[in-house]
Design brief:
With 340 residues, the protein is an alpha+beta fold. The protein is 59% helix and 19% strand.
Length: 340
Amino acid sequence: MCLLLLVVIVFDFSEKIDKFLVDTITFKEIIFQYYFNFIPYFLNLFLYLFVFISVIFFTSKMAQNSEFVAILSSGVSFFRLLRPYLFCAFVLAGMAFLLSNFIIPKTNIGLTEFENKYLRTSSKYSLYAHDIHVQIGDDSYAYVKNYNGKTNEGNDFTLEDFSFDGGMTYKLTAKQIYWNDSVWQLKNYTKRTIYSDKEILERGISLDTTLNLYPKDFVFTVNNLKTMNFWQLNDFIEEERIKGVRNIVEYEVEKHCRISNSFATIILTLLGFSLSFRKKRSGMGLNLGFGIALTFGYILLMQITKVFATNSGLDPWIAAWLPNMLYTFITAIIIYKVPK
């Protein structure tokens, strides 16, 4: 893991060396603010891969030395042999959960600040939003058909106020809406005020108004997702679901993946043990090759399901847990067939 991290750091440094040579960046900032916050993400990214390889390497070595034959002959069962593997797997899964949900979001804050200040690579926006419904008050609701985060303008805007009994008291519509410093500018607007005995209708070309609504409710940086811990992400998803501001599938996928990826350590440990338990004439090479192929298959499947969830309507829970469910099934079959 350390060797791989060194290789990743060398490649990243060589790619950004022209930006690091700027006079305003100190060596201390590069090491402690950037790379110290850079390491936990890659540590967690490759954790289950190297746990899997380690299990296969260690178990294959014991199998080649016929140690499992001696252990089983002394009366120890196959499932008793699994206990220390499972114990370590649960410890590592807990570590992966803490890394992905609490430690990495915290380190990403410093990493994002560094990138925003020096590298300018993290200002990635979701530039466009469609069919946005927002509750901006107890009885006030706003709607924008299309919003462009690049120009901070929207089309077909509607604001509606309701009384406590559910009746509409106010409606404001506009063909275009623009964010201008601290106010919203409405173009080709129609204002309708409803009283118990009459209605007042007003039309105009331009209107400046303040609303409990800001461009950040429509557009957001991708790094906002990276800096949220487990509880913040849950609260954000719930708030956005109530407000209906944007599509929150990406956030829901991230939430479930942070949990499911931790469990992958346990599943792959069981799979690695089952694959390497038998002594083979080919030695550990075949086990390692087959194990690495399965691991990359897992990573590929995980990425495919994420894309289907984000773009094709696949349930986020299924997208995050489908690789685990499939590999649990494969592991169960292999365990069942292993001579015990």
